[in-house]
Amino acid sequence: MKGIVLAGAAVLLTLTAACSGQAASDGGGSWKPRGDVRMIVPFGAGGGSDLAGRAMATALEKSKPGLKVNVENREGGSGAVGYSALLAKKGDGNYLLATENAILSLPLSGQASFTRKDFTPVAKLAEDGAVMVVKKDAPFTTCSDVIDAAKSGRVSVGMSGAFGVDSVIFTMIEQKTGVKFQRVPFESGGELVPAVLGGQIQVALLNPGEVIGQLRSGDLKGLCVTTDKRYTYPEFAALGTAKEQGIDVSYVQFRGFLAPGGLDERERAYWEEAARGIPRTAEFQKWLKDNYLQQAELYGAEFGAYLEQLDTALAPVLKKSS
User: Fold this and answer.
1) 3-state class percentages of the chain: helix first, strand second, coil last, to nearest 5
2) pLDDT in tens, 22-45
3) DSSP label at residue 77
4) What sign results for the dihedral spanned by CA atoms 80, 85, 90, 94?
5) pLDDT in tens, 198-242
6) CATH number of the domain within which 197 lies
7) Is the residue at 236 inside a domain?
């Protein structure tokens, strides 16, 4: 009778473990998601963050056969709505978020109660520079021309989020040159191209992948790039850097993903291992090429250290602008 009771208890424990939570583990203590995973994109469809989130979701599925990652756009608050959604999933390894510089700029600007420390850094996979663009008939041929115009008059600039990477770069330019721009915020980079074409704004900073079509067609023209060195991609090689044009500013946007805070080591290990497989997929390499990105990998604690260093560097810039 005693043996029967113990066996029954063992079955009960097994059933309880199998039915609880969002994740499954095998007898060896490994972990894997239970059911579909949700990749939150904290900006609207069509922009660089959306393209990045969808590319990483697809590459994760290829890296981990059987894994299903659904993308959900949770736009609003210059990214704060999406990050807050992940914040509410603390301890749930079935959620991820396509992250970029807003994870740092939002808290530093006082626009969010969370910080980078509330999330689990999984992977930084690429870097994305910015191109300053204007309408084809605009009276500017370089970024220096834009600065000169802003010194003597009004120049309207668009930003994909009031506290996004565009805002940081424009703030850096203002601090270095003494000009002031008229800022017009939008929710995503996908909204900036029609805004420039329609004359709602004069100038925008866009990731190369967001604007290559309009540059090829001639509807928009590029003035400079905000990377430290010129692009090696032929389509952008002729564009000088802001530094070459006398504007001592360089800044790139990183692309990667986070998991919620409060994960255990098995969950952390699963996602880091999955992330390391992403660059080996054809889908990831196609995304890099199609969107003119530079591959730049950091995982786990190294990605966390990178965020800390960038946080320190951004603090004086964003505190002056807030």
Assistant:
1) 45, 20, 35
2) 445 443 458 999 999 999 999 988
3) G
4) negative
5) 999 999 999 898 899 999 999 999 999 999 889 989 999 999 999
6) 3.40.190.10
7) no
Counting Cβ atoms within 10 Å, is residue 26 exposed (0-12), middle (13-18) or buried (19+)? exposed
Structural domain including 177 reads 131-225
Tally of residues, the chain: 322
Number of domains in the chain: 2
Name, in order, each residue with C-beta under 8 angstroms of 62's C-beta and a sequence gap of 6 or more. 277, 281, 282, 283
Q: Is this prediction's pTM over 0.70?
A: yes
Query: What does the pLDDT average to over 292-299?
Result: 93
Q: Is the CB of residue 314 less than 8 Å from the CB of residue 168?
A: yes
Return the amino acid letter for 224: C
We report the CATH number of the domain holding residue 74 as: 3.40.190.150
Amino acid at 162: A
220 and 145: one domain? yes
Q: Tell me the β-bridge partners of 256.
A: 99, 124
CB 307 within 8 A of CB 116: yes
Q: Are residues 212 and 285 in the same domain?
A: no
